[in-house]
Amino acid sequence: MIASAPAAHSASVLAAEDLSFFGGDPWWLILLKAVFCFAFLMLTVLISIVFERKVLGWMQLRIGPNRHGPWGLLQSLADGVKLMLKEDLIVKGADKAVYILAPILAVVPAFMAIAVIPFGPADNQVSIFGERTALQLTDLPVAMLYVLAAASVAAYGNVLAGWASNSTYPLLGGVRATAQVISYEVAMGLSFAAVFLYSGSLSTSEIVAAQEDRWFAILLPVSFLVYLVAMVGEAHRLPFDMPESEGDLVAGYSTEYSSIKFAMFMLSEYVHMVTLSAVAVTLFLGGWRAPAPLSTVWEGANTGWWPMLWFTGKVVVCLFVFVWLRGTLPRVRYDQFMKLGWKVLIPVSMVWLMLVATVRALRNEDVDFTEIVLYIAGGLLVILVMSFVVDIFRDRKEKEEAAREAARPKPEFDPTEGGYPVPPLPGQTLPPVPRRPARRERELVGTTGPGGDTEEADNG
């Protein structure tokens, strides 16, 4: 519907040619690259924990970790050892099988998504022990659908943890995690759709190749901003850490967990941070490509092992955004969080996707770019005029309703209705308090008689 048939066919052929780079490696090299992906995530998580605590310390004008290792660099390793040595408890009324399965189900899918993330170009292979291979474990024609599926399965770990704990606060945390994932994966998928329209493929290597001239963060700024908000909600990070907010749910779905099971939940959170940052880099920030000045000045910036350095640097920048948000923004209310997802992000993403699809369709029909801008400006002008007219009539109706409400007699407010005293709502007033007896009269109650004998005064 968006692209013409020849363009779509050429895009599919190009994707098939590029994906032919994968699948020809020997078994030991595939295993080595899989181990590297796992080690990359684990090492990045260990560094991210120390990095987060150090950055938060600098932001809050305090020292941060400085005891374990030089400059506190071994703090995250010490935390992991401490959690593994703690007593592993299982709640008495818990569903034992699901209780044990939940942390595994939370952490394993978080590692799976990194398999299709490119660390370097597929057509510029490097030599590993004499074998030429791409800096990517594998790629699929629907790689981004695989990433979304892995992220969705990981949410089941949080839900099952809350249900299997047989406790109120974990159950509420699991329900919140479900609503959060449903709300923000819709907006995330819509932000991905605009990228798919521009790249013509769902393959991660093809999406990076389509950003040779310009990053999609510049071409699709609305999709990029929507994804930034959605990835923070997807990772359950501040200010959107509703499923585990300590102010009202103790620790949410992980309240009844200890030792290595609790460590696995914490590991899944940080692995999700790294994975979502890698997806952001791949889809919107040029992937493994060097920044613009280096790409134009240095011809070898995107060859050999250099792309892995650029990719890792961009991931670190995205991780810093996570930490920056945590140290800057307070936690929002849950109703505000749901309203942001359903009433702001999803409508904005849908309108933006329709706009991108329209532009792509017009460009495929060889319509001049100036005419496209005029069409878009005319449509936006019509929408603004219509919203202005609607606002005028809506304000008039609200004013009339407010006038009728003001003229209507207000019922008397009873603060003890229902058996429990409650404060008045806006617009309600408490009834007047009966006048208390004078201070002199209160002092006379229970005083002694003229002789000073209390019992005689009481008897009299």
**Separate helix tally:** 17
**Percentage of residues in DSSP E strands:** under 5%
Count of strand segments? 2
Class derived from helix and strand content: mainly alpha
Protein name: NADH-quinone oxidoreductase subunit H
Membrane topology: Multi-pass membrane protein
Subcellular location: Cell membrane; Membrane
InterPro entries: NADH_UbQ_OxRdtase_su1/FPO (IPR001694), NADH_UbQ_OxRdtase_su1_CS (IPR018086)
Please give a structural write-up:
The protein is mainly alpha-helical. The protein has one domain. 64% of the residues lie in helices and 1% in strands. It has helices at 5-19, 27-59, 75-85, 96-112, 143-164, 168-199, 204-209, 216-219, 221-234, 246-249, 259-284, 292-297, 306-328, 334-364, 369-407, 439-444, 454-459, and strands at 126-128, 131-133. The protein has a two-stranded antiparallel sheet. A hairpin with a 2-residue loop joins β1 (126-128) and β2. The longest helix has 39 residues, at 369-407. The relative contact order is 0.10.
Outline of this structure?
64% of the residues lie in helices and 1% in strands. It has 460 residues and is mostly helical.
Question: Could you list some keywords that capture this structure?
Answer:
single chain, 460 residues, mainly alpha, two-stranded antiparallel sheet, 2 strands, disordered C terminus
